[in-house]
Write a structure and sequence with these properties.
Blueprint lengths: L4 E7 L6 H10 L6 E6 L6 H9 L6 E6 L12 H10 L6 E5 L7 H8 L7 E11 H5 L8 H15 L3 E5 L6 H14 L5 E4 L67 H5 L3 E8 L5 H14 L2 E9 L4 E7 L2 E5 L10 E8 L3 H12 L5
Helix pairs in contact: 1-2, 9-10
Length: 366
């Protein structure tokens, strides 16, 4: 019987730090040969560009970009062919990492892995959700306005369908704050297996890869054996081989239902999530731009912005989570000489954001 390729899914809401954490894992992969799928909801693959640069184009790390939409969801015709191509190169791949978009649930990938086209080549190792801990503690994942309700629902579901919660951005938090964050996670998702701490956005490779949480267990392991619940939803079918997911209820925990209950959540049930790109031909003043981006997030429901901008002195990387904006010079050497920003949010107005940036920077953004 051929060896199955283990798959780790890394999910988490917009700006939680998934790409930074994955960069650290890639650097500490030891001798593992990694295939990495990066899904971004937007026209420009900023994360893929950064990951390639940080991996130093290592031949043992294969990176695949999945821009435009959500990976493995109904309209994605690229996912299964890509995984089949990876399976054909199994002799050169030890582990597959999949980074979902911040607006996706891991269940879409889970369902695809259970399907007849992939079940004979891949097996789920674990699902990790990366959490912006200060954002969690600020109660901004609670339901208030329409945008907050949508965020809260998505965040809650990402937690529920994950095995491991990684508390990120914790370097300035004390022990009481960390205990509070763990309590909140346990309240929202009591069946999460492990909660890990990522200081400096780093996680021990042994806590992320090779966990074998979804692989068959031997009787002497004293695990609880159960079959995976069939996938609910439209045109749902049972997994091609449920036996491979036996032992999923570890340590007495209730079995997770990996059905794609929100398979059409993004495209049909909630079309309010939007992404667009703004660019300018004019050099930027970093201070004015940072102020403009901060004000834009206050005026419009901007949840994430990222990209590159040209100033008189350098090209800067822009990373924004709501009104928290950071500009750094930590950029790929191969980046093109242009200013381009991706904005993601809930019922965003492209024209209002463009007008605000143009007014506050004194340059045309369009």
């Amino acid at each position: 019987m051929k060896a199955l390729i283990p798959v780790t899914i890394v999910t988490g809401f917009l700006g939680s730090g998934k790409t930074t954490l994955l960069t650290s894992l890639i650097k500490t992969r030891q001798t593992r040969r990694i295939a990495l799928l990066i899904n971004e909801f937007g026209e420009v693959s900023i994360d893929g560009m950064l990951m390639r640069e940080n991996a130093n184009h290592d031949q043992q790390v294969q990176i695949h970009d999945f821009p435009h939409g959500l990976i493995a969801y109904g309209e994605d015709q690229l996912f299964i062919p890509t995984l089949k191509a990876i399976a054909e190169r199994r002799a050169n791949i030890d582990h597959l990492l999949i980074e979902t978009s911040g607006l996706a649930l891991p269940t879409a990938v889970m369902e695809a892995l259970q399907g007849p086209e992939l079940a004979d080549d891949f097996i789920l190792d674990a699902t990790l959700v990366v959490v912006d801990t200060p954002l969690l503690l600020s109660n901004q994942f609670e339901t208030e306005k329409d945008s907050q309700a949508a965020v809260a629902t998505l965040f809650q579901q990402q937690l529920e369908f994950s095995d491991v919660v990684v508390l990120n951005k914790i370097d300035e938090l004390d022990e009481n704050a960390l205990l509070q964050a763990e309590t909140l996670v346990r309240e929202k998702a009591p069946n999460v297996r492990f909660i890990e701490l990522a200081y400096h956005a780093k996680l021990d490779i042994r806590l992320a890869l090779g966990l074998r949480l979804h692989q068959p267990s031997q009787p002497e392991d004293h695990h609880v054996f159960t079959s995976l619940t069939p996938i609910p939803g439209q045109d749902a079918k049972p997994p091609a081989n449920q036996r491979r997911f036996d032992g999923h209820a570890h340590s007495g925990l209730a079995i997770h239902n990996h059905g794609l209950m929100t398979h059409k959540h993004f495209h049909e049930q909630d079309p309010g999530w939007l992404s667009f790109v703004l660019s300018t031909q004019h050099s930027q003043q970093s201070k004015a731009l940072k102020t403009a981006l901060t004000e834009a997030a206050k005026a419009e429901p901007v949840l994430r912005c990222k990209g590159f901008v040209c100033t008189e002195d350098a090209i800067l990387l822009v990373q924004g989570v709501r009104s928290r904006v950071i500009l750094t010079t930590d950029i790929p050497e191969t980046i093109q000489q242009k200013s381009e920003l991706v904005f993601i949010g809930y019922h965003l107005s492209r024209s209002k954001v463009a007008d605000l940036l143009s007014t506050m920077t004194g340059t045309l953004w369009e």
